[in-house]
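Hi R.,

Here's the input for the flavin-adenine dinucleotide complex you asked about:
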Amino acid sequence: MNKTIVIVGGGPAGLEAAAALGSSPHHVLILEKEHNTGGKLKNWHHLFPNFADASEILKSLEKSLPLNNSEIKYDCDVFKMEQMDGNLLVSLKSGEKIKADAVLLATGFDLFDAYKKEEYGHGIYKNVITSSELEGMFVNNSFPDQLKDGLPKKIAMVHCVGSRDKKAGNMHCSKLCCITGVKQAIELRKYLSKSSVYNFYMDLRMYGQHFEELYQEAQEDYGVNFIRGRVSEIAEISDGKLQVKAEDTLSGRPMKMIFDLVVLLIGMTPATSAASIAQSLALPKSGSGFLAPVHQHISANETCIPGLFLAGTCREPLSLQESITDARAAALKIIEWLKLKDNH
Amino acid sequence: MGRLYERLCEDLRCLEGLKSCMNCGVCTAICPSAEFYRYDPRKICDTVQRADDESIEQLLKSDTIWYCGECMSCKTRCPRGNTPGLLIMALRKLSQEMGYFTDSEKGRQQFAIRRVIGDSILTTGYCMRPILVNPANHPEQGPVWEWVYNNLPEVMDKVGANYLKDGPGALRRIAPEVLSEINQIFQVTGGQDFFQLIEEFSKDKADEMCLDAGELGGDNAYFSEVYTKNSGNHH
Ligand SMILES: Cc1cc2nc3c(=O)[nH]c(=O)nc-3n(C[C@H](O)[C@H](O)[C@H](O)COP(=O)(O)OP(=O)(O)OC[C@H]3O[C@@H](n4cnc5c(N)ncnc54)[C@H](O)[C@@H]3O)c2cc1C
Ligand code: SF4
Ligand code: SF4
Ligand code: SF4
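And here is the predicted structure with flavin-adenine dinucleotide in place:
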């Protein structure tokens, strides 16, 4: 019997899950709260680790959506769910309710609000920007004039902003900001050829395929400098220049350096747009606040609510590739579950 | 794990001050003492969390733990919620209890602090009084201070203090019954014994250095030594 599968969120994970469910006989409905699909991917320029064009990748994700059995509804902000006779009743902010046999949460993540780390001066000093804002400058070619005067610039990349930080309420490692920092350092060296770039890090978490190689490339081919010390504070001095304080922990001395631009590598935090859904179903959360699966190792896409599944960064920080693989795994679990449901 | 580490762990300030350190260096980067001295609170945290008694003993005998200004700026920033400044308080206490403080130049200054501030609290009720800042020992205070110092009663009158007199007001004489209460507090809480301990260890050190430490005050060779000695190796 054909069933309705609701996917909450039309980011990379939601789109890929819909594509994977295309071969099933079920009706797939993507509910996306914004006017368009793509999630965070639509804000990125070139992707680590191979500088692939993000817009091309998004296009191919959107192209693989099956036309026969899937439908996308935009401006549909899901805020609540309830269990009803073995189904799930999905409530939108508009008041509309949709009955689903299975629901996949692909609600993604939020970017850490850098203003919360007041000592870094985001929103206070104009030359302190976030990694996400830097992507926007590359996409729109909207670099501030003072960076484009052809003179040598000094740029700092600050790792772990809003991650691995009890004070910011986030103990987890966001996993991708290290490689994003390496990628963006290379891009800045390419774009502003006379610039020098310094990455302030605690550990470089180069866990993925070609990540370590990119780090080496950054050092050898692009002369990016790596200083092992977490930044303690940033202050504006004169002409919009910024003084960055850190300890060079390898030499064991505190240091102050002056920069023209500081890029904060903001972390990934649990999506606030999933909070009310989780609350309505009393869905457990992991220590860092992401949605918790029923079993970390063997059922990472299943939840304790029958018929409710998770995919992508709503459950933990993941790269694009991992989000996509995760979405396929979730799709398989949904098909299995619907089969079981039919047999009962 | 050893004896010194275990003793440190009995101190609440150690437990509160150091939960786990990831060697990020934020405390050192914000620390005013690290900017001035050869001093690194991160390294102190790391040494202690290794729980190696030999390194802890070295730390307790070094100048290092005496550089901290206890300003607690480090508390505001540590991403792991540690307070190196609190840990250092615990290290100082243990160094005092073990007598290790007399092994370092900055540590030996505990004697001067005990004689000047310690005595002042017990005999007058004030930690610091203007009369204790003798221009001869404090050239950094300059000629204006010397003039103030030489005309204290008149200056104090001028600024409206009730200097050493009975009744209310700044720098008034502390009433005898209040003073005796302060002394009792130091007695009951172990403060007196602690002062005594610093006296004893310091006198041993003075003997070893063939210097006289006197019984009271700063008019002795050991006091001058610890008060004025500067090896110039601190930066
Ligand atoms: C600065 C930065 C740079 C990055 N660069 C790269 C890179 O170069 N390469 C790479 O592999 N990865 C990169 N990533 C990671 C990548 O962005 C993620 O892996 C990917 O976006 C995760 O997709 P997702 O679908 O799980 O979540 P998201 O992209 O967050 O999408 C979630 C979607 O769900 C929708 N939604 C949320 N809540 C609701 C609701 N209640 N109702 C309806 N809709 C809702 C949202 O509007 C959104 O469209 C980067 C991440 C960051 C932070
Ligand atoms: S990935 Fe790197 S920058 Fe991001 S939180 Fe982890 S260690 Fe910090
Ligand atoms: S309390 Fe001590 S260690 Fe902490 S910042 Fe102040 S001087 Fe430095
Ligand atoms: S700030 Fe905290 S975690 Fe970082 S080095 Fe200092 S004590 Fe360790």
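One thing worth noting: The interface with chain B takes residues 119, 160, 164-168, 202, 228-233, 245-249, 252-255 of chain A (CB under 8 Å).

Cheers,
M.
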